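Next comes the chain:
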Amino acid sequence: MSYQKIDPIIQDWADKHKLRIYTSYQDYEVRSVDVVDQKGRKYQIWIDSPDQFGNVGVHTWDYKRRRKDYMVSTDDLRGCLEEAYNTVLLWIQTN
């Protein structure tokens, strides 16, 4: 499915946290952001397009060993993005 239905939610969330959304990777449509800490370490949050049931996968990882995955309805996406962002902030604090 397309990102069209959830793009406004993703954009509002990214604007709130001053994050840049990447929309393509190797000729594929994606929705991904990088969070960079003060030491230059990168963390990624990416969002899958909704499936046929309206569920969205949200994923975080530290480009190494830590990863957390979520599956939520499009109605719960905004809260899940905040939780994913807070997970990354916690990882940053513990590094």
Notes: The beta strands are 22-25, 28-36, 42-47, 55-61, 67-73.
